[in-house]
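Field: COMPLEX_INPUT
Field: COMPONENT_COUNT = two
Field: RESIDUE_TOTAL = 634
Field: MODE = joint
Values follow.
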Amino acid sequence: MSDIEATSGFGDESVADETGAATIPEPETRFGLPVTRSRGQQVLHPPREGLVDLVRRLRDDEGFHVCVDLTAVDYLAYEPPRRLPQDVAPERFEVVVGLLSLETRERLRLRVQVPADDATCPSLFEVHPGTEALEREVYDMYGIEFTGHPDLTRILMPEDWDGFPLRKDYPVGAIPVEFKGVQNAR
Amino acid sequence: MRSDAVTTVSSDASRTYEGSQELTPRKGAGAAELMREVGSVLRMSEAEVAALADEEPAEDETMILNMGPQHPSTHGVLRLMLELEGETVLRSKPVIGYLHTGMEKTGETLTYLQGPTNVTRMDYAAPLFNELVFSLATETLLGIDEGVPPRAQWIRMLLCEINRMSSHLLWLATNGLDLGAISMMLFGWREREETLRLLEMITGLRMNHNYIRPGGVAADLPDGWRDGVLRVLDLCAPRLDEYDELLTGQPIWRARLQGVGVITADEAIALGVTGPILRSTGVPWDLRKDMPYLFYEQVEFAAVVGSYGDSFDRYAIRLHEVRESMAIVRQILDALPPGDYRIQDRKVTPPPRARIDESMEALIHHFKIFTEGFKVPEGEVYCAVESPRGELGCYMVSDGSAVPYRMHIRGPSFVNLQTLPHMLRGGLIADAVAVTSSVDPILGEVDR
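Field: COMPLEX_OUTPUT
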């Protein structure tokens, strides 16, 4: 009996902490943009417009010289309410950029909302050339087009692949078997 | 850039076509693309780029050569498209994806306990690091990262450093093979086998251990582990000196590596490069030192730094990092505290075996943990560790269920591979093998 009951409070407790932090009256901002904390990690919520300028400013003035990671999340099947700052409207896709400062040893994460009907995002290639492959991967997996990217082609999937595998409406392991002579396989 | 052949394919309405992943011929590439390939990484001024572009040869003087994906020096299934003018490499492009198995998609269907089994297969030369970063991300989401017992954390460090040794020894072996030092190949595999035997003794498997799990490690260290570790340490120390004698001062080895595949610190940072490649340029960036995790701030070791950013520096760094790892392992042997090897939090830890015999609830609990898994509070988190190849990160989003909503692994090899076009440019095709090898890509992690 005690084994199960002792555990039940565990998840609820952390969730309560999280909601408590979200209801702080004055929203935190940095560089004029809403900031949230996720498990103590700093997250910035910039709009798509001006993203390149922001990242350039972060690189040149704030010392975030390394773009460590760039990925995306498809929130189509996400059930609980999204915890975003008040003036950030949730969209289906989110491009997540991980920046790193070698001087202050600080990480900063940017979460950029990208709507499903206009799945484009400005490319960070001009600021951080190292995002080239990462943006291609996001395009390959999510179909988010990075405007200004020099070579936006599929990188992991075959170039004639249909669909974007990491989208939530793309089923797991549901690739039709290709029979000889079938016209529209895949 | 789409060539004529491409347009005919894309007119077939049943399939999408996103353009060629391959290196396009010079006439199809267009001036803008050529200039970008030359100048983007370097952040050159426009005048400098224009001056370089003037020296570009005509189409009929160059040849596009396919290297891989079956070439033995590509360490797996890397395919390099090289544009050659005589023996000189002009442009190059890595074409990847031959090993893509959709592991991030699979990760969205596996519970947090099954997750390590999946991610451990990504970087198969350093599987414990994948498990570690996955476990750290899960623990941070759960909020139990402070509660993992010290012994579990030290065991994790111990195994990761042994794994770093085996990974670098494997690299020394294959790097020797790539450059024709066959005896080094045999030596490296021999010593790596010893470390793998040790890992097998501790975890039960040579590779893909699934030993580091959210909450701790799978089992405590077995009897005789200390003797096993000491045996490997005593065995490796003189053999590393042998490698030094065999290779480091050898004129042929130096001629093949020094000044080959040079990259500067600015370029490496612009490309997001981490690990030995970044350190070879003189940037002393090592996550174990700069953003310590586990108990790395309690052990003494040096971040090995190069100064020229060439293939020789990367060789010397990796060789020396084996020594540093051995020093860390020795300190862990002294520091390893007694205690539990996993967190005693009933949410993530199955009940002890003895309880299952006497309590029905414990049996149900045990069953539920392994079938349904445990629920993780919603949130998103990024955790990173220093793998033998650089920053290995895990971005995880939880929606409050027992499987991750999104699990992304930032593989260092995937990002580091982007240095290839830059480091190969202007070099000889024979050096392409040396440079590719010095990047140390593990294609399982590149393609995931």
